[in-house]
């Protein structure tokens, strides 16, 4: 009888898979549902629990024991810090490259490129907080390389994450610097390229290499490993491309 019980328990554990908790950089929020749907085609019993936020804040939370299995960062710096502190199972690996776009609901002449921020009509410029969000860091770098930062620093308003920067760009500011990936979401389809948004010249900022790591909590978690492998697979890369990312 004991053997039967043990076999039944094993079968149950195989059929009813568990939940994996992933910390996901806000810029990936637009693609994550498609990614999970594709993953669940081959892993239907795995529930992927997503927490969205800024990479800097996630790093601090993970250092303080936050129960995440995987961290999908908006850059490589934060997961590298965690790896150096021996808080990850894997080394940081590039899963996609993000890019910046300028968005406005004010019908500005975006053909001027980044120099539009110096226009007198532009009172506020929204960016993600450069202290915690890599896209914010890239925005500041672009301003400095375009030699407009000193002129417009007082115009800057800071969002807690890149997704909040989208909201600010459409409500609290004349123009906002956002993740290009956000513009491929269905809810953003009303905003048209070269009318409501344009890409920021990629020569103005360092490529936004986004990194993924498995955290120590998931060392023996096969489901976490399966999701990690999926994010690096050709199927996932196609989805990232569909949302405006570059992949290698």
UniProtKB/TrEMBL annotation:
PANTHER family: MOLYBDATE-BINDING PERIPLASMIC PROTEIN (PTHR30632), TUNGSTATE_MOLYBDATE_CHROMATE-BINDING PROTEIN MODA (PTHR30632:SF14). Belongs to the bacterial solute-binding protein ModA family. Residues 1-17 form the signal peptide. The keyword Transmembrane helix does not apply. InterPro entries: AvModA-like_subst-bd (IPR044084), ModA (IPR005950), ModA/WtpA (IPR050682). One of its GO terms (biological process) is molybdate ion transport. The gene is modA. It comes from Aliarcobacter thereius. This is Molybdate ABC transporter substrate-binding protein. GO terms for molecular function: metal ion binding; molybdate ion binding. CDD domains: PBP2_AvModA. It comes from the Bacteria. Keywords: Metal-binding, Molybdenum, Signal.
